[in-house]
Design brief:
50% of the residues lie in helices and 17% in strands. The chain is α/β, with parallel strands linked by helices. A five-stranded parallel sheet has the order 2-6-1-7-8, sandwiched between helices. The protein has a three-stranded antiparallel sheet with strand order 3-4-5, with helices on one face. A hairpin with a 2-residue loop joins strand 3 and strand 4.
Length: 224
């Protein structure tokens, strides 16, 4: 494995946005593992399969071919040759991702791919179990979090800007449901690695969160 930064944390903590900026800042390859699980969920949903029905999801893995492409410092994910980068960000697909991610066969399918990517490049990878399972030997491990209320408010404002008709209460309920599923799943539940640095962004904006993460990475690199 080359140099690796592993960022874990709950949904809506800002992992992807911050990881993308950190990747540019440090010249690392950004890998969004969440998009991979979302793609599996999307494929299942398109085939009329409930993402919670693992017995029916598992056979679909043989039909799915995923590729990551990077263009203009942005990660694009292709599923069977189709760019699904935008579609996998839909709210319902995110809930489906939480369901398929608890399936051991799905995790094995994707973790092997994630580890192979880390061996080839200096990377920054974010997800739910990067520091604990996928890259336990990563040089830098960060557990990024914020209160459920703050994460829901951020997500609610994002949806409003996109013209989505919803309420803060509905978004909060989804955030709390996703948190419960992520932390209570039997396979690789969301938790902070023992050697990960906790960064709580409940009280700060994006720029301050970025500075805090840079401080952690710089300190770790200096200490060797």
């Amino acid at each position: 494995m080359s140099f690796a930064v592993a960022i874990d944390g709950p949904s809506g903590a800002g992992k992807s946005s911050l990881a993308k900026k950190l990747a540019l800042h440090y010249g690392l390859l950004y890998i969004d593992t969440g998009a991979m699980y979302r793609a599996i969920a999307l494929y299942a949903m398109r085939r009329g399969v409930d993402p919670h029905d693992h017995a029916r999801v598992i056979p679909l893995l043989e039909e799915v071919h995923l590729e990551l492409r990077h263009a203009h410092a942005e990660q694009r994910i292709e599923m069977n040759g189709e760019d699904v980068t935008k579609e996998v960000r839909r709210e319902e697909v995110g809930m489906g991702a939480a369901a398929v991610s608890s399936c051991p066969q799905v995790r094995t399918f994707l973790v092997e791919w994630q580890r192979s990517l880390a061996k080839q490049e200096n990377i920054i990878m974010d997800g739910r179990d990067i520091g604990t399972v996928v890259l336990p030997d990563a040089q830098v491990k960060i557990f990024l979090t914020a209160s459920a209320a703050v994460r829901a408010q951020r997500r609610y404002l994002e949806l409003c800007e996109k013209g989505v008709d919803t309420t803060y209460e509905k978004v909060l309920a989804l955030v709390e449901k996703r948190d419960y599923e992520d932390t209570h799943r039997e396979q690789s539940p969301l938790c902070q690695a023992q050697d990960a640095v906790l960064v709580d962004t409940s009280d700060c904006d994006f720029d301050e969160a970025f500075r805090r993460l840079c401080s952690v990475i710089d300190r770790k690199r200096k200490d060797g």
